[in-house]
Amino acid sequence: MERNLITIGCALCFATCGLASVAQAAEATVPSIVEDVAAVNLQPVDDDVLASQSGKGIGGDVISGVVVNLLSQWNLPNGTTALAQGALSIVTNALNQTNVQVSSNAIVIGPNTPAGSGANPNASATGGQNATVNGVSQITQVAGNGNNGTNQAVIDFNSPASTLSTGAFNNQTSASASNASGSVKAGVTFGNGGMSIALQTPAGIATQTIAPGTSQQAGMISQLLQIAGNNQQVANALQLHLQTQQMSASMLRQLGVLQALQNTVRR
């Protein structure tokens, strides 16, 4: 299971009980997408618990499944909605056989009113896309009025088996969509051991990226919002679901023998 977890890059490296950054401009109204994201129940996890979650058997438990779900949505004041979602599922059965599934979906709907996009040519939000970090970054840059932007990352332990079901995964490694003029775009991409989603509108961009670690650089999880307009409603959400199962007494003994042999060799 350890090798399989490595393939998703640094999905486990950000192990925090919940990270969130919210930016609201003047006279902001809370959009439904932000309410939906904020409604996710957070499960506090102590540092000593997180420190032991390495994909191997610790304290009689082993990680048997993981689902990473990225979701970004942008609602413009003219009714246009851009949505991108990417998901990765790795589930191990009782025979230690691993099932890996991916899913990509991108949708752009609207506009459905004569109102404008809310873009402000006199406002700018730049620079965040050039930031390079090891670990987790959440960057929100807002210029304008009536905007609401949210970055949120949630980790959940002991998810039920139904949460890790792979039945709804379409196994598409990329997806894209745009409106007729091409001014609003949504995209999802899997590749190089990582995944990314991006929304582009006349009023800014929203991106999420998971990149694996290399010999020169640690892995990265980043969420970026850049809003340069008015009355924009934007949200990035990352959810990491982990399922653990109790290890048998036989397996615990085998691991104990293996660790003893490894320690002997090192000496």
Structure description:
It contains four helices and twelve strands; from the N terminus they run H-E-H-H-E-E-E-E-E-E-E-E-E-E-E-H. It is mainly beta and 267 residues long. It has one domain (2-266). Strand 2 (61-75) and strand 3 form a beta hairpin. The relative contact order is 0.26. Mean pLDDT is 76; it is low at 1-18, 24-35 and 55-60.
Summarize the helices and strands and which ones pair or pack:
Blueprint: H1 2-6, E1 19-24, H2 32-38, H3 47-51, E2 61-75, E3 81-92, E4 98-109, E5 135-143, E6 148-156, E7 174-178, E8 185-191, E9 194-201, E10 204-211, E11 220-228, E12 233-246, H4 249-266
Parallel strand pairs: 5-11, 6-12
Antiparallel strand pairs: 1-6, 2-3, 2-12, 3-4, 7-8, 8-9, 9-10, 10-11
What spatial form do the alpha-carbon principal axes imply?
elongated
Identify the strand order in the major beta sheet: 1-6-12-2-3-4
- Helix and strand composition category: mainly beta
**C-alpha-based Rg, rounded:** 21 Å
SSE succession: HEHHEEEEEEEEEEEH
Q: Count all strands and give the number.
A: 12
Characterize the biggest β-sheet.
6 strands, mixed
- Please give the domain count: 1
Give the uncertain stretches in residue-range form: 1-18, 24-35, 55-60
Mean pLDDT: 76
Number of H/I helices: 4
